[in-house]
Amino acid sequence: VPPADRATGTDHPLAPAGEAGLARRVLAAFRERTGGEPDGLWRAPGRANLIGEHTDYNEGFALPFALDRSVVVAVRRRPDDLVRLSSLGVGEVRLRLADVRPGGVTGWAAYVAGPAWALAEDGVAATGLDVVLGSDVPVGAGLSSSAAVQCAVALALDDLAGRGSDRTHLARVVQRSENVVVGAPVGLLDQMASLHARRGNALGVDFRTLAVRHLPLRPADAGLALLVLDTRVAHAHVTGSYAERRRACEAAARVLGVPALRDATPADVAAAAGRLGDLLPVARHVAGEDARVLAAAALLQRGDLVAVGPLLSASHASLRDDLAVSCPELDSVVGAAAGAGALGARMMGGGFGGSAVALVRADDVAAVTVAVLAAARERGFPEPQVITVHPDRGASRLRLPAS
Ligand code: GLA
């Protein structure tokens, strides 16, 4: 397969289905499975993160953006207490309303039941539901497909209850769903990106105040491209290590005598090196990463995307060496991209697998793709998937497509 095709993903089953196509398929499946019409269709995108990793739960900063790939859900409220969930790919799960609670549901159904429970806790009367979902967000690639499912369902149920909740409020509801029902101690990065992002922009988030701002991120206008490099590995210890890093960060903040690592500058951390001991690298990562995010935000504001490249590479080095959340497969795609002329590259998300992001000149996309695939082949790693992504808009209600 020619590298250019790989780069655009056109040869791969994970190629973007396109929102309209996906919506039509979800609607057709809903009609076929329920014999009726949904109350509506909603979509929520997966996310990438330009920079700002493991900063969200430290009340720091990040610059995520929404992918041009999303989850689409068709939802209908039922008069009884049955909850019927299915997706284009997976068969039906049937629950009773009484099961829609922490511990009552496992597997992918928790991503649908979780927001229903969290919204009920938030005052939205729970009803039976028919839900059919489809997605072209690669699953298990660290692109927050699970947050996208939960955001789409939460937006649907909030809309159907006529609430029109503030998006930040909804992001917190979805975080509660993931923390309590799914059981993952995640921060707010993924939900904020999926719910707040705007097309052609990165989303600047301050995780203390939850203030957001939109900063231009239109790589094509600058002759550049953003690539997602999916390693296609997910190492088993992800959740445990994530929780461990959170605890280490909290411990480091206590040693520094600050409410959260967000309040420590790189100089504060360096000055407290002796007292921090083993916690020094973790604190150094967070303080340094926050500083890099603020520098990147200023560059985006000025329209100087090229200058963001070195910040991405510095972020990766810090995640690899200080926070120690990378893995050989991520280091391989990042190293190969840099070696083939990428302006910068870094792992994204929690770590230990999933995807990296690379900023490259449009003319170098093919060379970077070839290098990333060759490096993986040489080391006997699974073949990475290289996808060109375009910062897109956050979650929304869709018009029912004409069939
Ligand atoms: C995962 C979590 C996010 C965030 C990142 C690391 O994606 O879901 O909340 O902590 O890891 O930046």
Descriptive notes:
The protein is of the alpha+beta class and 403 residues long. It has helices spanning 3-8, 19-34, 110-121, 145-160, 167-182, 189-196, 238-256, 266-271, 273-276, 280-302, 309-321, 328-339, 365-379; strands spanning 40-49, 61-62, 64-78, 82-87, 93-96, 128-135, 201-206, 211-216, 224-234, 344-347, 353-361, 385-389, 396-398. The strands form 3 sheets. Strands 5-4-6-3-1-13 form a 6-stranded mixed β-sheet, with helices on both faces. Strands 10-11-9-12 form a 4-stranded antiparallel β-sheet. A hairpin with a 5-residue loop joins strand 4 and strand 5. Helix 3 crosses helix 5 (167-182). It binds alpha-D-galactopyranose. Residues 53-54, 56-57, 186-187, 189-190, 349-350 line the site of alpha-D-galactopyranose (GLA).
Any idea what the shape is? globular
Q: Kindly state the number of beta strands.
A: 13
Report the span from N to C terminus.
Answer: 34 Å
Structural class: alpha+beta
In terms of DSSP E residues, the strand content is: 15-25%
Largest sheet: 6 strands, mixed
Sequence of strands across the biggest β-sheet: 5-4-6-3-1-13
Q: How much helical structure, as a percent, in the residues?
A: 40-55%
What hetero molecules are in the model? alpha-D-galactopyranose
Number of helices, counting only DSSP H or I runs of 4 residues or more: 13
Evaluate the radius of gyration. Answer: 21 Å
Low-confidence stretches: 1-14
Spell out the helices and strands N to C: HHEEEEEHEHHHEEEHHHHHHEEHEE
Mean pLDDT: 94
